[in-house]
Amino acid sequence: MTQSRKLLKRKFTLNGQPQEVDVDGHETLQHLLQERLQLSECRRGCDRGDCGVCTVMLDGQPVYACLVMAAEVDQSIVETAQGLSAANAKYQRLQRAFQEHALTLCHLCRPGLLVSASALLGERPAPSQEQIRAAISGHLCRCSGPDQVVRAVLAAADGGKVETS
């Protein structure tokens, strides 16, 4: 005999748009965003919070969507890389800096790194190299080294006028 799981109705804001979805209590936010809501930039990586690929903003804080249960986002604000790029001048400057510094990030790594770097710049407009390294430390990117990411974030921070230690 199979038991059906109870679905939970959840309302939240996703990239500025109201959402109302029925979620299974065992469904992750990453699965909801990528598989059900078809947001390609919230990719599946490790499913353990080790790689940073699925990083999104939840109520203004970067989180690994693979570690957040979809049922937890009721009445929350969720922003993905796609949503941040639409309305955030600092995020757009950050994207340009990533391109200008020849970061060879694949499409798997880039969105999560951009979300984490954007969150840092939102909190600290002129971060130090150490603060940038701490903000991106949860990302296991094999495409580009962390030094390139640090240089790009420094260039994007307040027009490149930042402290270096």
TrEMBL record:
SUPFAM superfamilies documented for this protein:
2Fe-2S ferredoxin-like (SSF54292), CO dehydrogenase ISP C-domain like (SSF47741)
A GO molecular function held by the record? metal ion binding
Q: Iron among the record's keywords?
A: yes
- Keyword Glycoprotein attributed: no
Family annotation (InterPro entries) = 2Fe-2S-bd (IPR002888), 2Fe-2S-bd_dom_sf (IPR036884), 2Fe-2S_ferredoxin-like_sf (IPR036010), 2Fe-2S_ferredoxin-type (IPR001041), 2Fe2S_fd_BS (IPR006058), Beta-grasp_dom_sf (IPR012675), Diverse_Oxidoreductases (IPR051452)
- Which key words are in the record? 2Fe-2S, Iron, Iron-sulfur, Metal-binding, Oxidoreductase
Q: Where is the 2Fe-2S ferredoxin-type domain?
A: 8-84
Put simply, this protein is called Ferredoxin
